[in-house]
Amino acid sequence: MPTTPSGRTAFHDLSTFLATSRVSSLALSPDGSRLVAAVQDLNGEGTAYVSGLWEIDPAGKREPHRLTRSVTGESAPAFAADGTLFFLSGRGNTDPGADKAEDKDGATLWALPERGEAVQVVRHYGGISGYALAARGAALAYTAQLLPGAADAQAHAERSKERAEAKVTAVLYEAGPTRFWDHDLGPAEPHALVRRLADDGMTAEEATVDAGSLGAIADTETALSPDGSRVALVRFVPGDVPNGNRTALVVADAATGEELHVLDHLEHDYHEAVFSADGRSLVCLRQLKETYETPYDMTLVRVDVASGEETDLLPDFDNWPSSVAVSPVEGDATVWFTADELGRAPIFRRDPDGTVTRLTAHGAYASVQVAPDAATLYALRTDIDAVPAPVRLAAAGADQSPEALRAPGAIDAFPGTLTEVHTEGDDGFPLRGWLAVPKGASADAPAPLLVFVHGGPQGSWNAWTWRWNPWPFVARGYAVLMPDPALSTGYGQQMHERGWGQWGGRPYEDLMRLTDATAERPEIDRTRTGLAGGSYGGYMANRVATSTDRFKGIVSHAGLWDLRSFQGDTDASWFFRRIFGDPLSQPQRYEENSPAPAVQRVRTPMLVVHGAKDYRVPVGQAMALFQDLQRCEVPVRFLYFPDENHWVLKPRHAQLWYETVLNFFDERVLGKDWVRPGLV
Q1: What residue segments make up the domains of the chain, in order of their start?
Q2: Domain 21-123 CATH class label
Q3: Where is the Peptidase S9 prolyl oligopeptidase catalytic domain (predicted)?
Q4: pLDDT tens, 57-68?
Q5: Which pairs from 179-185 meet CB under 8 Å and 24+ separation?
Q6: pTM recorded for the entire structure
């Protein structure tokens, strides 16, 4: 990683912090001898992050080395049955005679043998969003867009070129949704296409499935059985509210597209299907849909491919599983998964007899890979004070301390320490959060306190974040509280039930109680405090601003302000109405939880931040908040990003975000002069 002067950490200089390499995913070869990671680095101009593939020594002895390098980068590594490494990349077509329009605005699929150059395997007009490889067969499935009426990739390309040549960009919707996070939907929709790999293992024969018959699917949720004969995909189907949708699980014949089973239940969503080693079953996440009265819930189910019968694998597990991995050994029904738990996200093992064992006690884990003998696991480990990094651990054994593997992007020095804060809610429910305290903070020199509210609201402060990282603030001398209030994950279903339908109620009370408990610590200066949050955390920042004047400054990033207008404008309006009801017939929750009607109670100076490409919380929420505060003569600034979405992702914008938020708190919490960041 970049170096810093003696006595300083990477967090004392934002450009150094943001230039740190970022490990994002892992792939293990079929024989277990190779481990490959996708790693993001700044480009030469410092204006974008570009991903490359790195070889990591599974034994942890050799230094990592880079495998790929291009202007557009490489991502999503995966190994084929013969050990060939596949990846997605936007790099240029290597065939001089090929139509460059095939690569328009998207990634293509490439294969890289252990020795030799990368070869392009599949092109698709508009790009490929995800893919899967058969563990033992010569098949691949990929997800890509098809225009309505296009039966295959060629027909889609021809119709797309017609639209482009005619300068037509219009979309005619007959049902919603119409947007997703930061982009418009349609007219093309994602479909699964299956191809057979040729004998060389690196070129693909024509698609053998009429992809159009499979229906529009979730962008990257496609799996192949080990022999490549079956494909499992997650399909969007109409929900039970206007313009809403849910997901069904489809198992189809990979050669013909014939649907063998469809798991389609009004009260369930399905995600992350993984086939067993023998291909006779698959394991997936099953979500119990939320209602006005009850929060959603999550479990793991095993689905028999022959009958379609479902078996709940975690009937007594009280947290939500994710990151599912199955044993590669035929006949072994062991499953590994991760789940948020008390400010961590451990790896759990579910044995065939139903026994569930927690394998790790600290940190948060993702991208779990299982060795071919099912005796060893590889994963990315992260923590509030640890960047994502590959580790190795035994596939069995409780509360292990995994062995770190050598990889890019290490950060060893931090400007403070991490501890936990505990208290109780008004109902006696145990509450906790993380507290980062700067070095030197004491009763004689107490640190000012910032409170960061996470988004979701179903989420938890349990892992590293590049966007809401506490350590640049700690380096500036602030203590940072990261609380998990009601509706947070990792505390059992009761944590959701106790805050359901009252976004600004019990979660607010929990936040105040955790803030009170923190402010009582001798190393904390309770007279100098600020609060910030993004998404739901931005909503809570607005709610706090209308409810108390205890904070000196508040930052609202991508926050909800007027819930009634929000429900009609967000890309997920159907989801919001399931929780809050139809405002025409069920206005109570909107009236009780919306901050906007209480704007005249705001006394705290605010910084409002929003991106114009945010369709989850549309920018109109920030515009209204900004104008309402000005009308009420509340000191306010508005940091606006015309080309950012729900998150601020571009490197220079991320640095500007940190500079602006830090300078705002320096002004309002510490009483320093306002310093306007450069270039704005």
Answers
A1: 21-123, 338-406, 416-668
A2: mainly beta
A3: 464-668
A4: 999 999 999 999
A5: 179/571, 179/615, 180/571, 180/615, 181/571, 181/615, 181/616, 181/645, 181/646, 182/613, 182/614, 182/615, 182/645, 182/646, 183/615
A6: 0.95
